[in-house]
Amino acid sequence: MSGAPLVGAHLLGLADAARQTVEALAAELDEIVNDVAATLLAGGKLMFCGNGGSAADAQHLATEYVVRFRREGRPLAAIALTTDTSLLTAAANDMGFVEVFARQVEALGRPGDLLILHSTSGNSPNLVAAAETARRRGVRTVALLARGGGQLRALVDRAVVLPIDDGAHAQELQLAIGHAVCDEIERRLRGDAEA
Predict the structure, then answer these.
(1) pLDDT at 1 over 50
(2) Calpha distance 145→123 (Å, rounded)
(3) What is the pLDDT of residue 24?
(4) pTM of the model
(5) What pLDDT is recorded for position 59?
(6) What CATH number should be reported for the domain holding residue 37?
(7) What is the spatial distance between Cα 87 and Cα 15, in angstroms, rounded to a whole number?
(8) Most exposed residue of 39, 57, 153, 191, measured as fewest CB within 10 angstroms of its CB?
(9) What separation in angstroms does the CA of 77 have from each of 39, 40, 162?
(10) Domain presence at residue 195
(11) Which of 191, 185, 165 is nearest to 46 (CA)?
């Protein structure tokens, strides 16, 4: 049981970070729901991207929309730009790692789509390039950020900057926010019945 106090401290820190986030950003978090709902109701698609743990979150969240989170119903159009290893390695090899997401946004993004970027720093060059490409393509952008938001804060249509500097808690909260948004989208688009 020697590890329990350390685990407990981490969880209590996460709970405090979640409370701070809700107190500071409740309206902005609800606006993400509205952005996602408007995109899907108009026939657009969601595109998710991030690096490292945020890459895993991107594919996790895209899956919730296409398959389901809590409710059965029609699939919702979402794709993670982090999952095609042939595409990612070819783009990185031939164009540089900075282009791995931007190239996909250029190929797949259309006006009416929504690019959702996950980053704790807001300064990853490949996410900055994706946001810039999205703007040129007429794709709206939402970024879940921390640590002040970095460069992405000024490049996206909606920057939600968590009021925390801890990268681990930021990633945990970004995934929790993604789940909460998906839950509300399913409620709106698939009804109230849970599976």
Answers:
(1) no
(2) 10
(3) 95
(4) 0.94
(5) 97
(6) 3.40.50.10490
(7) 38
(8) 191
(9) 10, 7, 27
(10) no
(11) 185
